[in-house]
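Re: the 173-residue chain
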Amino acid sequence: MQKLRQWTGRVLRVLMPAGMYVMLASFSPVTAAPEPVASPMTRLRAGNERFVRGTQSPSPSAASSRAALGADTHPFAMVLSCADAALAPEHIFSAGPGELYTVRALGEVVDRAVLASLEHGVEHRHVSLLVVMGHEACGAVQAAHDDTPSESASLEFLYRAIRAAGPRSSGAQ
């Protein structure tokens, strides 16, 4: 938890295609993970460039077999993204199995389960980069801001959390 509170982040619009945004947070790993050939940010940028060009394929360092994906994976980045099916982080960053530690929740709402998942990524997988990835025209965010009623207590919880995050902005900075 303390590691997640000691992050420094910035919005980096140039990384993503139009209509999407990311916020990056860096952590000091508890223990050193194996040094990648390129920095996590360089790997994300390269993967996203492949996605934008339409030439995506997993990076050369991606695990190539199911057996290689045991409990000892070393993801180079953690991504918190919307649960929208069109926003698959592995696809957008051209990452292979085991390369990203992904946590998904509508509207990127962080509740205790999401926070625990992020803490696990930092403390047990030693991930040093967190990307919060959202998108324009998010249905959950729109419903929350339009005060769309729901008979679901769970969706009402989500809408309240989104509304509490602040007024809707016209886009990422």
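Residues 18 and 136 are 9 Å apart (CA to CA).
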